[in-house]
């Protein structure tokens, strides 16, 4: 089965000054199969968050290839690929108090994110459902 996400030799280096570069991620490989829940485990500062941020293109990766649903999402992105990436991949931040409305059930917050990334028609449909909730 083709992986949903395939990361090959991903590197994310941060140049701090001309003498010092932080190699936050330095050549990692992994893939995630459809339906698989994948956990990335490592000590603090080992590059887990940077890996996620690079994949979703908050950073431009220093090196490596990232394939998502068969599309290459590393390197220069076309407008269409960028839209595909940002409507099909989401980041859930580490601090639940900062990313979820604690007075509401968590799925309400998830649905809100989906509404903003789906088509206008689907958005209207979802908003109608929302008023019922
Ligand atoms: N923008 C940046 N510029 C320079 N160094 C950075 C930057 N972002 C992250 N780093 C460094 O990269 C390394 C990896 O950080 P990262 O936040 O990815 O680790 P982490 O595994 O998510 O840690 P934690 O478990 O504490 O969340 C750390 O040494 C961090 O200081
Ligand atoms: Mg982290």
Describe it.
By secondary structure, the chain is of the alpha+beta class. The protein folds into two domains: 5-91, 3-Layer(aba) Sandwich (Rossmann fold); 98-132, no CATH class. It contains five helices and four strands. A four-stranded antiparallel β-sheet has the order 2-1-3-4. A hairpin with a 2-residue loop joins strand 3 and strand 4 (71-72). Helix 4 packs antiparallel against helix 5 (120-132). The radius of gyration is 17 Å and the shape is globular. The termini are far apart. The mean pLDDT is 85. The protein binds adenosine-5'-triphosphate and magnesium ion. Residues 48-49 line the site of magnesium ion.
Key terms for this structure?
5 helices; 2 domains; Rossmann fold; globular; single chain; binds magnesium ion; binds adenosine-5'-triphosphate; 133 residues; 4-stranded antiparallel β-sheet; 4 strands; alpha+beta
Which helices and strands occur, and which strands form pairs?
Layout: E1 5-17, E2 20-32, H1 48-55, E3 63-68, E4 71-72, H2 79-88, H3 96-99, H4 106-117, H5 120-132
Antiparallel strand pairs: 1-2, 1-3, 3-4
Helix pairs in contact: 4-5
Care to give the gist of this entry?
The protein has 133 residues and is an alpha+beta fold. The chain has helices spanning 48-55, 79-88, 96-99, 106-117, 120-132; strands at 5-17, 20-32, 63-68, 71-72. It has 5 helices and 4 strands; from the N terminus they run E-E-H-E-E-H-H-H-H.
CATH superfamily of the largest domain: P-loop containing nucleotide triphosphate hydrolases
* Poorly predicted segments: none
Could you give the count of β-strands?
A: 4
**Multimerization state:** single chain
Number of helices: 5
Strand content: 25-35%
Rg, nearest Å? 17 Å
Tell me, what is the CATH class of the largest domain? Alpha Beta
CATH fold group of the largest domain: Rossmann fold
Span between N and C termini? 38 Å
The CATH architecture of the largest domain can be named as 3-Layer(aba) Sandwich
User: What ligands can be seen in this structure?
Assistant: adenosine-5'-triphosphate, magnesium ion
Strand arrangement within the widest β-sheet reads 2-1-3-4
Total separate domains: 2
């Amino acid at each position: 089965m083709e992986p949903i996400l395939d990361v090959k030799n991903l590197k994310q280096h941060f140049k701090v000054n001309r003498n010092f570069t932080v190699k936050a991620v330095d050549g990692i490989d992994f893939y995630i199969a459809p339906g698989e829940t994948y956990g990335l485990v490592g000590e603090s500062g080992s590059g887990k968050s940077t890996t996620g941020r690079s994949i979703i293109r908050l950073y431009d990766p220093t090196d490596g290839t990232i394939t998502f649903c068969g599309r290459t999402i590393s390197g220069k992105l076309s407008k269409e690929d960028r839209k595909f990436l940002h409507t099909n991949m989401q980041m859930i931040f580490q601090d639940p108090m900062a990313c979820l409305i604690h007075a509401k059930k968590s799925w309400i917050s998830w649905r809100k994110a989906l509404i903003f990334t789906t088509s206008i028609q689907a958005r209207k449909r979802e908003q109608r459902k929302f008023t019922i909730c």
